[in-house]
């Protein structure tokens, strides 16, 4: 008996009737705790169910990864020695076992094996549970175990602490039965714990390097916003001077840092969700390596807008998919000619964007690009333009002389008298200027149909539509939806100087199935809205507007085949049964359209 044990303690334990005479003080204190937790003599430790164990192992995956090499090597060396090696979580659950196989089989009988829970409160005094309680190494020999059934075991356990922040990560334990000689177990378990901690330290240093790499990449793209990068323990990896100045002693930041270490085992999107909005005004990005979060980046975006007229180049636009690639290829060829181009497409398909790209591809350096919204042109104003030197006719002449471009938006909205006057004005200006104007027109309804129906003058039509480019609606080129989204999100990030939105696979599949009546305009609005509302920048299904989440209600229409068939019928309808025209609208070859008609069982008895 050790001096510090009082007579009263002794009497208490004698009352239990099982205290060994040679008991050491830490063991006796552990017995005291075990007795007060009401533990009765158990044959084996409680065992976790399959799914509980999977979750437990998942949560401790960093520890398991850090211990893998040590466990493999020592486990191999301990085979046929009667010793086994256990890696346990910080709540005493056995995560992995290695070493002597016969001993492992005996361990199973007491659940001294994977899934067994060896905390003190589960099975009383034992090296694993008692080391967790004491936060230091301990060896517990046979009768020192609180439960009699465990007396056949000897165990030496050492805590493993996180080299980043000193938190208890788990326990490494050597166990052997009474009939096996073992003198060095305590030293071996301490050495293994040191090796595991060294390996964890190396992983941690690599993670910090990765966080710095991500920061460099972000800075290349977005410049030098005030930024703070924290590792998984919320320790600073990098902080810019301005961030430090702005947030020194900030309570919200301190609270956020306190939350980070406890969240790190979770999925990156769950961490982002949990931390969202915790630092108002800052963008928060959870940095992950594969599925594991390794840190958090906080930045304060400086607004550095790029002029809106600065769109992408034709080559870049063409990268989103085969249909747009072909369209841009034609556009590039036409850009180098004086042929007037009519661009048609539903609202928001990117007609203006394409017209600007054509203009930039046409002239180096490009002259000016003037948009003329025909829906605002009145007959009176056009008459004045024709009759005398108005501001607009001066502008048109200047454009013509300098090789600039005139882009007529919605010419189909002009009343008949105004159409005639516009034609005269265009002819007058071209006749006087040597270079001529690069003429582009945009229409969201088929202008040819309007001409056929007598609503648009034929002479003006042919003056505008030397060549036609038709941008199919997004829903007719579903494979281009996700690349378009990425392009729009990337452009939004660049023009606002903010972080780029990321989407979960669930959100992407809903967006891909959505029918996008407002095309790229709707997509641009969506990206701006999500960016404004999402503190984390990670977009999940539930962040999307209701109409985009309603996929299941219109399943048939939203299967790829279902929607493609509907689009084909719609295009044929639009083209008044003319299959060549329908194929053009769909952005596919006529032969491809025939194949699709056959596959959907649609009769080919249409005009060609
Ligand atoms: N290739 C693209 N990449 C990124 N954003 C694009 C692209 N094309 C268009 N956008 C964006 O989509 C939105 C709609 O484009 P745009 O104004 O060119 O469409 P539109 O067909 O001219 O529309 P409307 O018929 O309503 O005038 C704009 O915000 C534009 O910046």
UniProtKB/TrEMBL annotation:
PANTHER family: TRANSCRIPTIONAL REGULATORY PROTEIN. Residues 326-532 form the Sigma-54 factor interaction domain. GO terms for molecular function: ATP binding; sequence-specific DNA binding. The keyword Phosphoprotein does not apply. It comes from the Bacteria. Signal peptide: none annotated. InterPro entries: AAA+_ATPase (IPR003593), AAA_lid_NorR (IPR058031), GAF (IPR003018), GAF-like_dom_sf (IPR029016), Homeodomain-like_sf (IPR009057), HTH_Fis (IPR002197), P-loop_NTPase (IPR027417), Sigma_54_int (IPR002078). Keywords: ATP-binding, DNA-binding, Nucleotide-binding, Transcription, Transcription regulation, Two-component regulatory system. Pfam families: AAA_lid_14, GAF, HTH_8, Sigma54_activat. GO terms for biological process: phosphorelay signal transduction system; regulation of DNA-templated transcription. This is Transcriptional regulator of acetoin/glycerol metabolism.
């Amino acid at each position: 008996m050790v001096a510090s044990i009082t007579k009263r303690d002794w009497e208490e334990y004698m009352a239990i009737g099982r205290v060994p005479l040679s008991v050491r003080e830490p063991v006796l204190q552990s017995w005291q705790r075990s007795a007060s937790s009401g533990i009765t003599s158990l044959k084996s430790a409680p065992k976790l169910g399959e799914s509980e164990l999977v979750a437990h192992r998942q949560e401790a995956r960093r520890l398991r990864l850090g211990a893998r090499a040590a466990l493999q090597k020592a486990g191999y060396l301990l085979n046929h020695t009667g010793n086994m090696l256990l890696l346990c979580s910080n709540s005493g659950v056995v995560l992995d076992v290695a070493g002597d196989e016969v001993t492992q089989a005996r361990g199973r009988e007491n659940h001294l094996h994977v899934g067994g829970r060896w905390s003190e409160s589960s099975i009383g005094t034992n090296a694993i549970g008692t080391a967790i309680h004491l936060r230091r190494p301990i060896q517990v020999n046979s009768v020192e175990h609180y439960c009699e059934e465990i007396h056949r075991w000897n165990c030496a356990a050492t805590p493993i602490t996180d080299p980043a922040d000193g938190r208890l990560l788990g326990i490494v334990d050597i166990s052997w039965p009474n009939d096996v000689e073992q003198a060095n177990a305590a030293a071996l378990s301490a050495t293994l714990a040191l090796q595991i901690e060294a390996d964890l330290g190396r992983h941690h240093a690599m993670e910090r390097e990765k966080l710095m790499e991500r920061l460099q990449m972000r800075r290349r793209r977005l410049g030098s916003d005030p930024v703070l990068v924290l590792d998984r323990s919320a320790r600073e990896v990098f902080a810019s001077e301005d961030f430090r100045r702005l947030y020194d002693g900030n309570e919200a930041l301190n609270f956020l840092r306190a939350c980070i270490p406890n969240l790190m085992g979770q999925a990156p999107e769950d961490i982002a969700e949990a931390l969202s909005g915790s630092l108002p005004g800052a963008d928060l990005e959870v940095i992950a390596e594969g599925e594991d979060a390794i840190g958090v980046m906080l930045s304060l975006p400086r607004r550095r807008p790029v002029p809106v007229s600065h769109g992408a180049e034709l080559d870049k636009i063409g990268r989103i998919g085969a249909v747009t690639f072909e369209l841009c290829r034609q556009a590039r060829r036409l850009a180098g000619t004086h042929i007037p181009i009519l661009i048609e497409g539903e609202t928001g398909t990117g007609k203006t964007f394409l017209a600007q790209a054509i203009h930039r591809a046409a002239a180096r350096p490009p002259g000016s690009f003037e948009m003329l919204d025909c829906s605002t042109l009145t007959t009176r104003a056009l008459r004045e333009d024709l009759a005398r030197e108005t501001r607009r006719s001066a502008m048109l002449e200047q454009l013509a002389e300098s090789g600039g471009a005139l882009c007529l938006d919605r010419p189909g909205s002009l009343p008949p008298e105004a159409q005639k006057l516009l034609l005269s004005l265009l002819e007058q200006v071209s006749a006087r200027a040597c270079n001529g104007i690069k003429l582009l027109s945009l229409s969201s309804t088929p202008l040819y149909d309007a001409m056929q129906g007598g609503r648009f003058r034929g002479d003006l039509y042919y003056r505008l539509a030397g060549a036609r480019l038709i941008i199919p609606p997004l829903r007719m080129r579903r494979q281009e939806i996700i690349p378009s989204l990425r392009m729009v999100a990337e452009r939004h990030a660049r023009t606002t100087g903010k972080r780029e939105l990321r989407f979960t696979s669930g959100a992407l599949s809903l967006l891909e199935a959505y029918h996008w009546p407002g095309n790229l305009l709707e997509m641009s609005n969506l990206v701006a809205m999500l960016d404004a509302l999402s503190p984390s920048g990670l977009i999940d299904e539930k962040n999307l507007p209701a109409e985009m989440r309603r996929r299941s209600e219109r399943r048939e229409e939203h299967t790829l085949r279902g929607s493609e068939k509907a689009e084909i019928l719609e295009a044929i309808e639009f083209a008044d049964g003319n299959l060549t025209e329908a194929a053009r609208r769909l952005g596919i070859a006529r032969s491809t359209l025939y194949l699709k008609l056959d596959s959907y069982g649609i009769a080919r008895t249409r005009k060609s």
